[in-house]
Design goal:
With 457 residues, this protein is an alpha+beta fold. It is built from 14 helices and 23 strands.
């Protein structure tokens, strides 16, 4: 299966099975916006919950928070976003379409200054000279916009953690090194086609600011940096993403952000190319020093042993939720030919081999028919297992078609309640990846799933 074909099939499956819908579809849509359907919303929540469990709840050196989307505009002035959060664009003089000049330069392996000599990718018309535009969405708070000061939809979630640094050290018993973590929405005024969920104007991030004492040597911060890189790689494995789908890209020279001393991109092999999945940056004390200077507040940390005051430095691991969702789905998507009930015939089986702890549905309860005794027994099992696991009840269609539906949404186990169940008090459990079936007593189901649905977070 070609990469392009795989992407088309995944997009089709995602809509058909209720994972992702085009934004505002009944009105013709809105560029670079997507809505998560019932299964997609659950998968996204499972990813967030697994991340929070791994990096916040399971660690003694991490606290969580949830900062507001709207912040005082002085925050964005101090952080450099008002002046530096820009991308170069070119316009077509003929069709008026806009394009990212840096993307065109990368694609054609030319400099930014040479981009205007290219023909328009849309109509072959003439392009303008590159100019910069700010990615921040500007709006106003107040009843009369012309009298109100502008505010911004946050373009990243990091600044909420930096401006609350003093609140955290004043209210929590934290000592360096420690981190602040949060997840939430961010907004960027993107002008380019988004490659499905990869690039959106409204997107979701999971991020940590890990504070360390000012390093006495490069080796000190490099050790912390490398440790976090290892943590991120382990997280990626827990998503079911293979090592050969990942590439570590060192950002160098002019490509480095203004706040970063070192940045690496963890890239994933998407069908449309090797592109960024996550980022890891050493931001030094850039952000705290800028906010301390602009606000006039003392944001220094006091060492409880020596009494020394200083601004901590920061290692920042960044995880895109939507890109995680897309990479997880792509890595899980699988097709295979399986035998049918007719001798010598096969049919295509599509499935999502999602990790069990991430699957939107973990157990599907399938009564063999709609006969009341089977429905009653299935209802009892659903009530019991539904207390702990994500359950779906399905009694519509042949058992084969119901298996296929559950394969497509990534359900690890199907439980079939048949007429034998009424006599032997046992059910048939069918495993997704191998299609192997096992007869298990109803009284042992809780223990069976406890063993086979262990979390890999």
């Amino acid at each position: 299966m070609s990469n392009e074909n795989k992407m088309d099939k995944l997009v089709s499956l995602a809509k058909r099975r209720g994972f992702v819908y085009p934004g505002s579809e009944i009105y013709g849509g809105l560029a670079n916006t997507w809505d998560y359907g019932p299964y997609g919303a659950q998968l996204k929540k499972n990813i967030i919950d697994a991340w929070w469990k791994r990096f916040v709840e399971s660690r003694m050196d991490m606290v969580g928070m949830d900062s507001a989307i709207f912040m005082n505009p002085k925050v964005w002035e101090a952080s450099g976003h008002v002046d530096n959060f820009t991308d170069p664009l070119v316009d077509c003089k003929k069709c008026k379409e806009r394009f990212r000049a840096d993307h065109l330069a990368e694609e054609h392996k030319i400099t930014l200054e040479e981009v205007s000599k290219l023909p328009c990718p849309n109509c072959k018309g003439e392009l303008t000279e590159p100019r910069t535009f700010n990615l921040m969405f500007e709006t106003h708070i107040g009843p009369v916009s012309k009298d109100a000061k502008p505010v911004y939809l946050r373009g990243e979630i990091a600044q909420g953690m930096f401006v609350n640094f003093k609140n955290v050290i004043d209210t929590m018993r934290v000592r360096l090194p420690f981190g602040i973590a949060q997840y939430g929405k961010a907004f960027r005024n993107e002008i380019t086609a988004g490659n499905y969920l990869f690039r959106q104007v409204e997107f979701n991030l999971m991020e940590m600011e890990y504070f360390i004492a000012p390093p006495k040597s490069d080796e000190e911060w490099q050790q912390v940096f490398d440790k976090w890189l290892g943590e991120m790689k382990e997280w990626i494995k827990s998503l079911g993403i293979k090592d050969d789908e990942i590439y570590i890209h060192e950002i160098e020279g002019d490509e480095l952000a203004h706040y970063s001393k070192r940045t690496i991109d963890i890239e994933y092999q998407y069908p449309f190319g090797m592109k960024e999945l996550y980022g890891l940056a050493y931001r030094t004390d850039h952000d705290l020093s800028r906010h301390m200077e602009a606000s006039g507040q003392d944001l220094r940390y006091t060492d409880p042993m020596s009494g020394e005051k200083f601004l901590p430095h920061v290692i920042e691991p960044t995880f895109g939720i939507d890109r995680t969702f897309l990479a997880t789905m792509l890595s899980a998507y699988s097709e295979e030919e399986v035998a049918t009930s007719k001798e010598g015939e096969t049919e295509a089986r599509v499935m999502l081999k999602l990790p069990k702890h991430l699957a939107p549905v973990q157990i599907a309860l399938l009564p063999l028919s709609k006969k009341e005794p089977l429905q009653e027994k299935a209802g009892e099992i659903t009530k019991e297992l539904g207390q702990k696991y994500r359950i779906e009840y399905d009694e519509t269609g042949s058992i084969g078609k119901r298996y296929r539906r559950q394969d497509e949404i990534g359900t690890p186990y199907c439980v079939t309640i048949d007429f034998e169940t009424l006599e032997d008090s046992a059910v048939t459990i069918r495993e997704r990846d191998t299609m192997k079936q096992e007869r298990v007593a109803i009284a042992e189901l809780t223990d069976w799933f406890e063993s086979n649905l262990k979390s890999t977070v």
